[in-house]
Specification:
The chain has nine helices and 15 strands. The chain is α/β, with parallel strands linked by helices and 285 residues long.
Length: 285
């Protein structure tokens, strides 16, 4: 097995929205804001090469939305999935599976693209199966008013119409051991219904793709919860459980949204679980 970080692009989000009720005087220590209160955000995906399978976890925003839409998110840098795959000798057509932690537009938008004549949509990874889970799919396709703006039909419905949509089994407890794709999955419900956190066993280590359970290093303190979370009190419990497990077992946490810290470990302290070490993907993967 080999793992590759895939840079799907960078954008900015409002720091207050990213930290909810936490005062700016606290969160700006780790996530400094610009004059418009926006903080740097990455869309760092993960590619798993395992035998004849090439599995991509999340796909970023994609490039099919309007200039007005992207204007809200202040895109920066020149990273793209195509460019990042090419650096490792791959093409989008080589990807066999696309695993989506959840279906918010900044995690799955790159899964679907315009067709050649821009009259409709098609899979961006034409040879891949798409993976979600039944509960989250139902949540995303019949969205609540809070999340409706994050679940874009053009990102989601074409997956089903392609005939390539598959669902991961859901465990009775929090963790599904050995999913259909070969890695464990932790299910979390605080951010959105049945968000999936892949836990990949790699060279004697456990690499956890944190998605929106832990967006950045700045979110390590348990009360530092995003304003986007639909059930913030549940996020508190899920974060505490997962971070304690990570500290106990020396998990390596792959940060999808932290523009400046790629992989971290955590440790127990008198103040709770806190940052231990920081690694670049090149150092670890």
């Amino acid at each position: 097995m080999k793992l590759y970080p895939i840079k799907a692009g960078n954008f900015k989000l409002d720091g207050g929205a990213m930290f909810g009720v936490v005062p700016k005087s606290l969160w700006q220590r780790t996530n400094p804001a610009d004059a418009n209160n926006m903080i740097d955000i990455a869309a760092r995906c993960l590619l798993i090469e395992d035998g004849d399978r090439l599995i991509l976890i999340d796909t970023g925003m994609g490039n099919k939305q309007s200039d007005k839409f992207y204007g809200y998110y202040h895109l920066w840098g020149d990273d793209s999935i195509e460019k990042s795959l090419k650096e490792y000798g791959f093409h989008k057509d080589d990807v066999t599976d696309v695993f989506m932690t959840h279906l918010h537009f900044d995690h799955c938008g790159g899964s679907i693209q315009w067709n050649k004549d821009r009259t409709g949509y098609e899979p961006a990874f034409k040879n891949a199966r798409f993976w979600s889970n039944e509960n989250h799919w139902q949540w995303a396709t019949i969205p609540n008013r809070r999340e409706k703006a994050s679940f874009l039909k053009e990102n989601i419905i074409p997956m089903e119409e392609s005939g390539h949509l598959n669902f991961i089994a859901q465990p009775k407890l929090d963790i599904l051991e050995k999913s259909a794709l070969g890695f464990d999955v932790f299910f979390a419900n605080g951010h959105t219904e049945k968000q999936m956190i892949p836990m990949i066993h790699y060279n004697g280590k456990t690499i956890c793709f944190m998605a929106d359970l832990l967006p950045t290093v700045g979110h390590l303190p348990i009360p530092f919860v995003m304003g986007y979370d639909t059930r913030p009190l549940l996020t508190l419990d899920e974060k505490e459980k997962f971070l304690n497990m990570a500290a106990d077992n020396n998990f390596y946490l792959f940060l999808e949204h932290d523009a400046h810290n790629e992989i971290i470990t955590v440790k127990h302290t008198e103040k709770g679980v806190r940052l231990h070490e920081v690694f670049t993907c090149n150092e670890l993967l």
